[in-house]
Amino acid sequence: MIQACFRLFGLLWVGESLVRFLNLPIPGSIVGMVLLTGRLRLGIVRVEEVTPAADPLLDNLAFLFVPPGVGLMLHFDVLRNEWPAVTAAFVLSSLAVLAAVGLLHQALEKRGSTP
Amino acid sequence: MTAWLENPVFGVTATLAAYYAASALYRRWKTPLLNPVLLSIAVLILFLKAVGIDYETYHRGGQVISFFLGPAVVALGVPLYRQWEAVKAQGWSIAASMTAGCLVGIISAAATALLLGASLPSAASLAPKSVTTPMAMGVSEALGGIPSLTAALVIAAGVFGAVAGPAFLRLLGVRSPTAFGLALGAAAHGIGTARALEEGPLPGASSGLALSLNGLATALTAPFLFRFLVFLTQRWGG
Known about the structure:
Radius of gyration of chain B: 19 Å
Distance between the termini of chain B: 51 Å
Oligomer: heterodimer
Mean pLDDT of chain B: 89
Helix content of chain B: over 70%
Number of strands of chain A: 0
Structural class of chain A: mainly alpha
Number of domains of chain B: 2
Number of helices of chain A: 5
Order of helices and strands of chain B: HHHHHHHHHHHHH
Radius of gyration of chain A: 20 Å
Largest sheet of chain B: none
Strand content of chain B: under 5%
Number of helices of chain B: 13
Structural class of chain B: mainly alpha
Shape of chain A: extended
Number of strands of chain B: 0
Distance between the termini of chain A: 47 Å
Low-confidence stretches of chain B: none
Largest sheet of chain A: none
C-alpha cells in the first residue's frame, strides 16, 4: 500500500513539476498517467506495485467528483439568467461528441477488421 | 458558523454520507437517473442551502476528497497499460475519432450557446466542458471565460454523459467496447471514465485514453476555434 501510494504520488509530483518547468498546457496528473503507462510498459514498475493504491482509487473514481460538483451552487446567479442556453449547449454538445466519437470509431474499426 | 461545521471533517462526512446513501439507492433500483454522483451533488446542495451553510465551509472537507483526483488520474495508467495492445492496434482510428470529438465538442458547445444568446464569458466557459476539470479551467481562462463556472459545467457535462451516454450509444448502435469507452471519455472525461470502467476493462482503458487525448487536443485548438466562432456569430448576428 505504502509503495503503491509512493509510486502514484511520486509520478504525480514529477508530472506537476514538469508541467510547471516546461509551461505545458496540460495538468500534471495527465503527464503522470503517461509516465506510469510508459514505466509499466518498459517493465521499470510492475503492475502489482501500483494496484494496491490504483484499484481502490479507480473503483471509487466517481465519488471524488462530488465536491467539485457541489461547486455548482456558487453559480446559480449566472445560471438563473442564462440557464436555457447553457443547458441546451452542454446537453446537445455532449450528445454530439458521444455520437461523433462512437459512430466514427466503430465505422473505422469495422473497415480495419475486414481486409 | 458553529464549531461543528468549522473543521474539514464535516465536509468529508457529509460527502461520504450522501454518496453512501445514493449508492445504496442506485444498487437497489439500478436506474441511471439515480446516478450516485448526480444524486449526492443534488442532495448536498439542497442540504447546504436548507441549513444555510456556505460552499467555503463545506469545501474545507470537500477539497480533501477531490485532492485524490490527482493520484486517481495517474492510476488510469494501469488500465491503459493492461489494454495497450488492443489500443495500439487501433491507433489511427483513435486519432481520427478523437480529432472529430474535440472539434465537435468545442464548436457545438460554443455555437449553441452563442446562437441561443448566452453571454460571451458563458460561451467561453462552456467551450471546454468535455475535458477534465484542471485542463478545462486553463482553457476557459485563455478564452476569457470564468474558470470556476467552467469547473461546474464540466461536472454537469460529465454527470449528463455518464447518466445518458451509455443508453444513447446503445440507441445509436455503438457495440464496439473501444468506441463505447472513447465516446464516454471524450464527452464526459473522468465521470464518463468511471462509468466506462463499470462496463469492463477495455471500455475503461479507452475512456481514460480519450480523456487525456481530448484534453490535449482541446487545449491546443480551442483558443483558435473559439475566436473564429465568435467572429462568425457576430457577423451573422449583424
